[in-house]
Amino acid sequence: MTQPSEPAVPLSPNEQRLPPLQLLLVAIQHVLLMYGGAVAVPLIVGQAAGLSREEIAFLINADLLVAGIATVVQSLGIGPLGIRMPVMMGASFAAVGSMVVMAGMPGVGMPGIFGATIAAGFFGLLIAPFVCKIVRFFPPLVTGTVITSIGLSLFPVAVNWAGGGSAATQFGALQYLAIAALVLVTILLVNRFLRGFWVNVSVLIGMALGYVLAGAFGMVDLSGIGAAPAMQVVTPNHFGAPEFQLAPILSMCLVVVIIFVESAGMFLALGKITGQEVDPQKLRRGLLCDAGASFLAGFMNTFTHSSFAQNIGLVQMTGVRSRYVTAVAGLFLIGLSLLPKAAFLVASIPPAVLGGAGIAMFGMVAATGIKILQEADIGDRRNQLLVAVSIGLGMAPVVRPEFFAHLPHWMEPITHSGIAMATLSAVTLNLLFNVLGGRERATLSGAALH
């Protein structure tokens, strides 16, 4: 008589294997959402350095290649690298201010920027095993505050997109608002009346309809796509051999520290969303991948890399928590880096289309933070003060970017990042209120790791 077989242990959402069509469509959503941010950094730095349109296009393809490789490694894991969760990687905005300054410095230029990026990536590889230990200082009180701040700091991006983007000749014109509204309403209706597969691709459906309406309004610009080469391979050191200069290196090393602080908060947020415990070992793997991507980026003509917060909102929005989705999205990015025409087509998505989707997804990030705060003793007045001050400081550079303009330039990676400001404030105030003086509280014990 045969023994009854034991029931199969269900896979965690992080390990879920989706049907091929659903896998591809959700992966495309991730690519479409992060593409604007991925190309923005090389656009800004390339223009500041006075590069030609062809050279800037090469920078963009280089960024897509490294972002794709780093995304695959973060999602699947290779050796000691990769957090093995649904993470999308791309060029970090934390370094933009420093790199724009470097681009205008005599004798620095692109080789100096790439040399500083390589050195900063190597520095990150050295310190990642030590930085990962800070996870014990991110109890639900701190994590919830940081995640709420991430969502709130992204809202101005979504609103700017919905109004037509920074380049709009008439910001807030009715056609921009109509497109953003169509995308947002479509997402809401799909989530209200449909189920399963359709909910998972609701963002893609909304953006597709928005793209069609934008095309009808004549807002989709495909001029120049014919001149783009059919295929182009990114080659190392395209702008010459990297140059290593002390001041740019020190500035970029500071940027890497800020990236680590931001990434730690976002990895913990993603852990809450996907139901994965982000212990020091897992966090170390994620940070090592961040640093390794930046180290590679300097050789491949691009910049420091980090995880993208907006894609965390998409994970929460769709409910698809599989790391294989972002791995496929990473392969898409690698493919786009080889196909300039395809990359050009994705880049033609008007900002208003992204804005309608961003309002829903970035709001979901903030809602996740509020949910996590319910696990903390939020009735305590001091904890309320921690949340209030940290979110307030996090919003300062968002509401008025020039608020810290008179502070030293080396502080810009911190003072220009709302996420970094909120994270540093929340960690510091938690130490002051709940740890120092022997007053160990439940807020820390819940996250204490052995």
Provide a concise account of the structure shown.
Helix content is 66%, strand content 1%. It is mainly alpha-helical and 450 residues long.
Short descriptors:
450 residues, mainly alpha, two-stranded antiparallel sheet, 18 helices, 66% helix, 1% strand, disordered C terminus, transmembrane helix, transport
Molecular structure report:
The chain is mainly α and 450 residues long. The chain has one domain. Helix content is 66%, strand content 1%. The protein has 18 helices and 2 strands. It has a two-stranded antiparallel sheet with strand order 1-2. 54% of the residues are buried.
Strand order of the largest sheet: 1-2
Count of folded domains:
1
Q: What does the main sheet amount to?
A: 2 strands, antiparallel
Mean pLDDT: 83
Pfam families: Xan_ur_permease
Protein name: Nucleobase:cation symporter-2, NCS2 family
Subcellular location: Cell membrane
Keywords: Cell membrane, Membrane, Transmembrane, Transmembrane helix, Transport
Reconstruct the topology from this structure.
Elements: H1 20-48, H2 53-76, E1 89-91, H3 96-103, H4 109-131, H5 140-162, H6 174-193, H7 197-200, H8 202-216, H9 246-274, H10 280-299, E2 305-307, H11 309-318, H12 323-338, H13 340-347, H14 351-373, H15 381-399, H16 412-415, H17 418-435, H18 442-445
Antiparallel strand pairs: 1-2
Helix pairs in contact: 1-2, 1-3, 1-11, 1-12, 2-10, 2-12, 4-9, 4-10, 5-9, 5-14, 5-15, 5-17, 6-8, 6-14, 8-14, 9-10, 9-11, 9-17, 11-14, 15-17
Keywords: Cell membrane, Membrane, Transmembrane, Transmembrane helix, Transport
Main location: membrane
Membrane topology: Multi-pass membrane protein
